[in-house]
Amino acid sequence: MLKNVKILALIVFIFLFAMCNQKSKNDSNKETILKGSIEVTVDETVKPIIDDQVAVFEGTYYDAKVVVKAKSEAELINDLLNEKAKVVITARDLTKEETDKFIKLKINPRVTPFASDAIAFISNKNNNDTLIALKTVIDFMKGISNPQIKGLVFDNPNSSTVRFMKDLAKVKDIPAKSVFSFKTNEEVIKFVSENDGMIGVVGVNWLSQPSPEMQNIIHDLNVLSVKGLNSNQYYSPTQNDIAEEKYPLARKLFVINCQGYSGLGMGFASFIAGDIGQRIVLKSGLMPVRTPGRKLEIRNKIINDKEN
């Protein structure tokens, strides 16, 4: 009888030990703001800067894995509204209607602005004219021809660049004649570099941070300076002109987190908006929301040496 009790006690002990180990394993795999795995859907026009952010984030927090999936703006917003995506990087904030839909689902979207980038107009190097008026492009989108533009080239009919330009031109659809679209910014850049007279419309991030295979192609392009609708001056999509709000095609970038809990999405958004993430933005040629501070160290010894 005593032997049976001991065997039963041993079985119970082994069972409890196994359950504790399983609980410990589950706890170690639990997602936190700095641990776990998450898929982030990114507006294709700003993918280079997010790739840089992910590389540094994962290099800093070894237990974090961020998978970047590039899509057009319309696709990623649709995925967000249909709960197919939880965290997205986009070139616009949510509309009131979109926010209200999440509130009905009892989800409070966390929207974090982290940078300003811009839409750039590019042309072939053979085009000697490096200036263009925004009104000229808008008129072309309304169907008014102009000898300066042989054709407009967009990345994707559903992209943020198309939506941005349609809003400016106040048109519902872009004209079918002399307007071309591909799928990615890289395809636009390559096409414009090989075809004279075409004006490409791309995210400036692809020009400031070209992939290795695109670097030589970028050299075959002109980045056009643009005169705004209410300006007599031409400005370029440089960090300085974006910062001083002179360039007429600047736009804000946002992280929109709809996880609904304190997960890796919150940690990644905080990282991008924090000191290290903002330094990455600054180095990329875009304009951070907050300019990272600089620490100055005054060394008395140097001062004394100069006095002597």
From TrEMBL:
Source organism superkingdom: Bacteria
Classification via InterPro entries: PBP_domain, Phosphate_ABC_transporter
| Pfam families for this protein | PBP_like_2 (PF12849)
Signal found in the keyword field: yes
Q: Which UniProt keywords apply?
A: Signal
Which residue range or ranges hold the PBP domain? Answer: 35-274
**Protein name in the entry:** Phosphate ABC transporter substrate-binding protein
